């Protein structure tokens, strides 16, 4: 297939581009050329907001829109395309209001989430535009993404603390639950959607099981063969000051995804792949001042 991937240079979009290129597809990436490009892809150098006729010359069998964040993003891309086949938009679990009963299902009414704010409402606006103007589009709603090429300061933060032999500070009793989706699994699921073309158009994607904060930290440290020295922090300290996730527990119902793709990458394996990439790409991590806050306020 001839496939267009938006972005293609960082984490989810780069993984997507490299996954499909590795499968032998003719993969084009759309970005401004400000970062190194992956091998075996064809680069369309352009700003997505001033595409003009650059995409009209191509007929894409699939458009994998990994980097749109709002209605304007999906609208400008869709209107700039020539003829295309399938369209997959990576949205977010942030479109579910936290007031809904859990687990969140795809058929629930979406809306504002006070934790995610504009990020969630913008993703939902993008979904709604696609439903109206590209009704055959597939919409994916992942929780937290993990795995190879993850440049966010999440598991990388735990890896760094483990390497330095630092204690790890966890919120409250460490029992808040987290749900993840391996980036490789999301790519495999996109591949299955393109091949099977199911009637359902919206899918939650991710592991069916959640893990506690404490379990997640231990899994990250296990990759390095380390036992974490856990320290517990009271609710009076803002969680995001020293820990990479919001104080927000939720779970998605992923049974529809599992009906198509029952076998998933074990979370321990996903974290191992994440560490292998981190070990050789430390300079690409988008660090936050968590260690500075810990040194000044918790140690």
What are the SSEs and their pairings?
Blueprint: E1 2-6, H1 11-22, E2 26-31, E3 42-45, E4 60-65, H2 71-80, E5 84-90, H3 118-133, E6 138-141, E7 144-146, H4 155-164, E8 168-171, E9 177-178, E10 180-182, H5 183-196, E11 202-204, E12 211-212, H6 213-223, E13 230-233, H7 255-260, H8 267-280, H9 290-297
Parallel strand pairs: 1-2, 1-4, 2-3, 4-5, 5-6, 6-11, 7-10, 8-13
Antiparallel strand pairs: 9-12
Helix pairs in contact: 1-5, 2-3, 6-8
Describe the structure.
The chain is α/β, with parallel strands linked by helices and 299 residues long. It folds into two domains: 2-145 and 182-204, Rossmann fold, CATH 3.40.50.720; 151-179 and 208-297, UDP-galactose 4-epimerase, domain 1. It is 34% helix and 18% strand. The protein has helices at residues 11-22, 71-80, 118-133, 155-164, 183-196, 213-223, 255-260, 267-280, 290-297; strands at residues 2-6, 26-31, 42-45, 60-65, 84-90, 138-141, 144-146, 168-171, 177-178, 180-182, 202-204, 211-212, 230-233. The strands form four sheets. The protein has a seven-stranded parallel β-sheet with strand order 3-2-1-4-5-6-11. Helix 2 links the parallel strand 4 (60-65) and strand 5 (84-90). Helix 1 packs across helix 5 (183-196).
């Amino acid at each position: 297939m001839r496939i267009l991937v938006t972005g293609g240079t960082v984490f989810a979009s780069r993984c997507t581009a490299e996954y499909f290129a590795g499968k032998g597809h003719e993969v084009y990436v759309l970005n401004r050329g400000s970062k190194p490009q992956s091998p075996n892809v064809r680069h369309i150098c352009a700003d997505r907001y001033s595409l003009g006729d650059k995409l009209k010359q191509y007929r894409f069998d699939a458009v994998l829109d990994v980097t749109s964040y709002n209605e304007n993003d999906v609208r400008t891309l869709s209107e700039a395309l020539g003829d295309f086949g399938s369209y997959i938009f990576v949205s977010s679990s942030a479109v579910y209001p936290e007031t809904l009963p859990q687990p969140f299902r795809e058929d629930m009414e979406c809306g504002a989430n006070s934790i995610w704010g504009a990020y969630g409402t913008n993703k939902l606006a993008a979904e709604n535009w696609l439903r109206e103007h590209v009704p055959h589009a597939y919409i994916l709603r992942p929780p937290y993404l993990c795995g190879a090429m993850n440049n966010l300061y999440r598991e990388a933060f735990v890896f760094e603390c483990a390497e330095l032999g630092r204690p790890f500070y966890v919120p409250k009793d460490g029992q808040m639950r987290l749900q993840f989706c391996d980036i490789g699994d999301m790519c495999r699921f996109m591949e299955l959607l393109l091949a099977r073309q199911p009637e359902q158009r919206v899918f939650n994607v991710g592991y069916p099981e959640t893990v506690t904060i404490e379990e997640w930290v231990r899994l990250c440290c296990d990759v390095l063969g380390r036992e974490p020295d856990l320290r517990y922090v009271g609710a009076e300290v803002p969680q995001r000051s020293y820990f990479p996730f919001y104080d927000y527990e939720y779970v998605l119902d992923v049974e529809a995804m599992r009906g198509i793709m029952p076998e998933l990458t074990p979370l321990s394996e996903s974290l191992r792949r994440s560490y292998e990439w981190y070990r050789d790409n430390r300079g690409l991590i988008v660090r936050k001042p968590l260690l500075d806050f810990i040194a000044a306020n918790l140690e």
